[in-house]
């Protein structure tokens, strides 16, 4: 199935034409005829607070879908944007004060900070799941609390290894290694060839946390157990740290100071030949004349599988929540239902050009994943995604541990030799216990 | 006919016409302003420090729990050390270099006004912008300093400015000093120009060496302004945030976390408002000490007049 913008616009135009022919009073009924379950309240209007888009096509598709919704139902939707780090405090205050945006597109554990301030969307999410092949487990965890959906999982922002094929071949590897041992061997060989790898050990909100969680989880470590008791102090964590030390030794120097942008920069300048990033790195390389050659040489792969035996990653995750102070909850649900309809959702995923990975399995065959081999590893993001704070529950504690860089610090302390492995674990244990008290 | 008693002026009228009443009235706007925008936020901050408030959720009173936790939190103590080290070293450097610059600018130089104007530039540029420039200068791969030194063959690989704890501390201090010198220099220059030339001339006629003139005439007369300038400078440095946030976010491994950045990290992205507030409140004693020192230490009359 292929839906492009043109078809989408045609569809929107047809809907608009239909709306013109009928009296405005039957317009809400019109939406129903489109197979929608939820009917917006009379005179409803909505405000959505979302993170500032990273990809222009994603924003365009989202806005076009929203415009189509307004045309079909007459419900105006105002979209406010906040830089991605500011969404959390803004939404928390809105939830607490009971005014402001009706819906928020937020990150990670945010809905779990104020679950009792959110509209129960179990009906909507169950219906969407049934229609579209079910939710991915990892993303479902970000929307579901105690068997109830408090938020609608939207997407995972895929993270994958980006490497220079020619450099990998020069280092004696024909294909990208699938396991952590092979990966270390590759990084070591790359270092010997003078084209090292580099992952951030610094306070990089996205890339640093992705890397640290992958290190821990791929070795079977966990911050807390299912009961929410601190479980970081384990042989698995120690193994993860030892592994990180070996990687650090063959990385380009200075990774402990890296913030989110540093690995992109170093990759685009040719200083490193392997890192992990969103697909944006590839598009950034393709955009500039000077880095076209790097884009040609760039290949992507999934982060290797560790002793735990399967692919587990953090990935940024986004959900959409409806606040209880929203005066038109049915309109909000109708909006989400509309946005998750195959036409709209596929157009949006295509527009995001592999930056956003679907939350519903039914969209896995979106053409975006096969349109370019670079995209392929990003298609697996929702599958390999594991919820933050594994194996405990999501909530303020898991959110706090990530925001305070507890895992990033633990690895950085150990790899830089500032603390021994045991001391670094003990320190992380203390800090995690504080959040899970 | 009995005289009609003059109607007693209304309370309001008497109040407005009395000296104290009117004074109170005139002070009200300022008092309201201070209460709303200084006392209330400060009080709220102190209160939050005693609660476990999170963003979006009012907190419970938990007494000194936050402080007890901070007491044995090595990250917090590291940030206290960093803040003190950062403040003391950067302030001393800013004072020394600023005073030196002020003395130079106080001489009759060609294009004096031009130099005085451009000296202010680092201070005029928004901190975030200059911090971004320094971010590039200190980049672990693209640093211009490393590049030049490598071109000259002095070093073989880039200097790890922001990756090594001590390098990172010195790097952020260098950026802070660069930014802070103009403020000190221009303020001290203003102070220098208020010193009557005749005093210096008199001392010179009496045979004082330039050093003696500086030590016995210029410096004592400059002390009041030094006290004010350095109080401000110390306060700005102690509460610095933007520079660190842009350059390192407190890394590597918290080696450059100042109390202000740690407070932000825990309170806003981390959502632990109570703990963040407690860290911010923990800054108050240090700030008070700095202010008290400058007011009672540096502004002592006797010391200014040269008598010990």
Automatic annotation (TrEMBL), chain A:
It comes from the Bacteria. GO terms for cellular component: periplasmic space. SUPFAM superfamilies: Periplasmic binding protein-like II. InterPro entries: Bact_solute-bd_prot1 (IPR050490), SBP (IPR006059), TAT_signal (IPR006311), TAT_signal_bac_arc (IPR019546). It is found in: Periplasm. The keyword Repressor does not apply. Gene3D superfamilies: Periplasmic binding protein-like II. This is Extracellular solute-binding protein.
Automatic annotation (TrEMBL), chain B:
Coiled coil: none annotated. GO terms for cellular component: plasma membrane. It is a multi-pass membrane protein. It is found in: Cell membrane. InterPro entries: MetI-like, MetI-like_sf. The keyword Cell membrane applies. The chain crosses the membrane at residues 21-40, 84-105, 117-138, 219-238, 277-298. Residues 80-296 form the ABC transmembrane type-1 domain. Pfam families: BPD_transp_1 (PF00528). Keywords: Cell membrane, Membrane, Transmembrane, Transmembrane helix, Transport. The keyword Cell membrane applies. This is ABC transporter permease subunit. It comes from Paracoccus litorisediminis.
């Amino acid at each position: 199935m292929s839906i492009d913008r043109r078809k989408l616009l045609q569809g929107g135009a047809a809907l608009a034409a239909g709306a013109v022919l009928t009296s405005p009073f039957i317009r809400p009924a019109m939406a129903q005829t489109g197979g929608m379950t939820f009917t917006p309240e009379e005179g409803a209007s909505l405000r959505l607070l979302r993170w500032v888009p990273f990809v222009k096509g994603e924003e365009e598709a989202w806005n076009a879908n929203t415009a189509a919704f307004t045309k079909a139902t007459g419900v105006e939707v105002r979209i406010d944007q906040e830089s991605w780090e500011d969404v959390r405090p803004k939404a928390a205050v809105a939830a607490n004060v009971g005014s402001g945006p009706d819906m928020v597109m937020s990150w990670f554990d945010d809905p779990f900070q104020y679950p009792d301030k959110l509209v129960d969307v179990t009906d909507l999410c169950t219906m969407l799941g049934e229609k579209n092949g079910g939710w991915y487990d990892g993303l479902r965890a970000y929307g579901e609390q105690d068997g109830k959906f408090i938020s609608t999982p939207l997407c995972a922002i895929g993270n994958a290894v980006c490497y220079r094929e020619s450099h990998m071949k020069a280092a004696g590897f024909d294909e990208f290694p699938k396991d952590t041992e092979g990966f270390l061997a590759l990084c070591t060989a790359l270092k010997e060839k003078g084209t090292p790898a580099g992952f951030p050990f610094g306070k990089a909100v996205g890339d640093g946390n992705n890397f640290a969680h992958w290190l821990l989880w791929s070795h079977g470590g966990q911050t807390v157990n299912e009961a929410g008791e601190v479980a970081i102090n384990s042989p698995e964590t120690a193994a993860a740290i030892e592994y990180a030390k070996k990687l650090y030794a063959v990385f380009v120097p200075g990774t402990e100071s890296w913030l989110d942008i540093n690995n992109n920069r170093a990759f685009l300048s040719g200083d490193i030949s392997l890192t992990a990033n969103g697909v944006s790195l590839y598009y950034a390389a393709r955009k500039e004349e000077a880095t076209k050659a790097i884009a040609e040489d760039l290949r992507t792969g999934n982060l290797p599988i560790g002793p735990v035996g399967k692919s587990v990653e953090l990935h940024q995750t986004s959900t959409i929540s409806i606040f209880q102070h929203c005066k038109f909850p049915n309109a909000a649900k109708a909006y989400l239902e509309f946005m998750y309809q195959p036409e709209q959702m596929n157009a949006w995923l295509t527009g995001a050009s592999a930056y956003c990975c679907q939350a519903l399995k039914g969209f896995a065959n979106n053409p975006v994943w096969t349109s370019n081999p670079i995209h392929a590893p990003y298609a697996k993001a929702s599958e390999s995604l594991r919820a933050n704070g594994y194996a405990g529950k999501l909530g303020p504690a898991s959110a706090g541990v990530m925001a305070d860089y507890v895992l990033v610090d633990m690895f950085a302390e150990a790899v830089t030799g500032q603390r021994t492995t045991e001391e670094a674990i003990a320190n992380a244990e203390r800090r995690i216990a504080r959040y899970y008290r | 006919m009995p005289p009609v008693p003059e109607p007693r002026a209304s309370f309001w009228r008497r109040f407005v016409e009395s000296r104290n009443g009117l004074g109170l009235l005139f002070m009200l706007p300022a008092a309201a302003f201070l209460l709303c925008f200084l006392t209330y936020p400060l009080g709220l901050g102190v209160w939050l420090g005693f609660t476990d408030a999170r963003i979006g959720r009012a907190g419970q009173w938990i007494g000194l729990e936050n402080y007890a936790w901070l007491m044995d939190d090595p990250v917090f103590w590291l940030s206290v050390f960093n803040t003190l080290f950062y403040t003391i070293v950067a302030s001393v450097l800013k004072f020394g270099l600023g005073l030196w610059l002020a003395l130079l600018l106080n001489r009759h130089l060609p294009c004096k006004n031009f130099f005085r104007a451009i000296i202010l530039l680092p201070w005029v540029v928004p901190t975030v912008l200059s911090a971004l420039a320094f971010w590039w200068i200190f980049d672990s791969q693209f640093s211009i300093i490393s590049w030049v030194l490598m071109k000259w063959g002095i070093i073989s690989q880039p200097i790890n400015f922001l990756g090594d704890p001590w390098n990172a501390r010195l790097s952020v201090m260098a950026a802070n000093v660069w930014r802070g010198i103009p403020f000190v220099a221009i303020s001290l220059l203003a102070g220098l120009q208020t010193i009557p030339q005749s005093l210096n001339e008199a001392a010179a006629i009496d045979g004082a060496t330039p050093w003696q003139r500086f030590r016995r005439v210029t410096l004592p007369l400059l002390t009041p302004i030094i006290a004010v300038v350095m109080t401000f400078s110390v306060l700005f440095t102690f509460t610095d945030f933007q520079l660190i946030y842009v350059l390192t976010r407190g890394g590597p491994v918290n080696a450059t976390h100042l109390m202000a950045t740690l407070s932000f990290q825990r309170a806003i992205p981390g959502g632990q408002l109570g703990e963040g507030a407690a860290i911010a409140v923990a800054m108050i004693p240090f700030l008070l000490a700095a202010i008290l020192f400058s007011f009672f230490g540096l502004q002592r009359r006797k010391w200014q007049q040269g008598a010990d």
